[in-house]
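Repro case for the chain-ordering regression, as requested:
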Amino acid sequence: MRSHVIAIAALPLLLLVGVFAAGAPQEAPAAWRRLEGAWVRTDPDGSGSFGGLGSNIVPARLKPGVSMAGAGRGGRAGGGRGARGAPPDAAGAGTPHKEGDPYIAVAQPCFGGAGRSGGALLVNPDSGGVHFAVSKDEVIFAGERGGVRHIYMDGRPHPSSWTPTGAGHSVGRFEGDVLVVETVGFTPGAVPGGGMRSAATQLVERFQVAPDGQTMTVTYTWDDPAIYEQPHTYRYLFDRAPGNPPYALEEWCDASDPIEKQSIVPPKQIIK
Amino acid sequence: MTFVRPLAYLMLAAVGIPAALVRDTQAPAPAPPAAEGISGNWELSFDSRKIPRARLLPTITQAKLTQRANLDAHAIRWCNLMGLPFVMDSGRPIDIREGPTVVMIVAENVPNPRYLYKDRTTHISGDVYDPSTHGDSIAHWERDTLVVDTIGFHPTHGITAIPGGGYRTDKSHLVERYRLMDNGNMLSVTFTWTDKTVFATPQTYEFRYYRLPATYEVRAGILCDPYNQSRADFLGDPLEPRPSAKPVR
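-- result from build under test --
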């Protein structure tokens, strides 16, 4: 009889446990938490400039007859919101620098054109901060210098009909703690390390965060039998963005402001 | 043997009754509640906005409103970042994704997303935060409602017009309440703007977004080209042209 009483007394408790277990929100996987948040690309080899970073990439092995003609320049070519890569109109390449003039001047600041708009900048991140939000069906990958990539995690295939874009169409999955992203459907263009891409080119990115959550290695592999002798692979390194706490900065660029057309103006040199 | 019957009761309680209850709560649902929560693609329709007229301070003259309208037109003409509140009604769907620590909101035709931080309860100090068009947003769940608190707006950057009248300033404070309706197929967002330099009473309005199918593919944004002369002629710019470029030393 006593044991019956105990059992009946335990009923409400068990009931509560059962109901809460059924309705409790599931804790997000640790890999999501590690990837989510703010990152900045680093320069582990002390290259000193974005161009220097690119020069460390092992050159792509292109098929005979494949040329870069018409593909545009790699890296930062083409501008982008704030990328300021439009043709120079005052201090272009090869023009001797005149004291008092800005080092870099651009004709069309704050405008990237189709080649760098959308999330295209995030296929080849520059020094601006990048951010992830990781949800069950989609990862959003966004850059402070503009653009967003949508990485579908719900198992959908690439669409059969797709108008190529600078960021392409991305689907992803977690392999253990590594986010693996497959992208196709690019507009033709350049790839770091002297590579090229077309609508048929496939990019596989592997985003791997260190167990301490403070560093991330992204391995890029471009593959296209029509372009490459062998898959073109290189990697970028990222650190957690600084700040306590880190947060996304907003890069303001007003195309109507003449100051946006220039970069640093060197001060008058006192000692020649 | 004495323990057999009590044990049987316990097993029944542990397995049967909660399961029956859960089944009970789900029984009448024609479609399962949206397991993805507020994550998804959402769009406004013609019947999605309930916007009362704002009660502005007497100091908000027509001249000030015109000046603000001109700034907004200038921002559109030059493809500036638009910011809040425009991004929540930009003419294209918004993609909301809730991660463990942050919620991102991306409008298809706006280049910069909103970040709603769930991993902190205080705003970034004004000593270090550069005012922005989206401001600094922190978020937390109150039962079934995501409450988002935003300050740190730039006084003039972006489109500052607030639905119903008035505009945002660096003194503005926005509280949003996100709540699913209609079995997860609709998202109600209530916006409340307070600003002692603009509004006599808080300006509150509500948008109700329709959920797009889970298979929806986000479209590429429409390229905004400030150097397109035809577009520039079409829009015009009510502000005086800026002074010609001179290197700044």
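Ordering looks correct now. The helical segments of chain B are 4-26, 62-77, 229-235.
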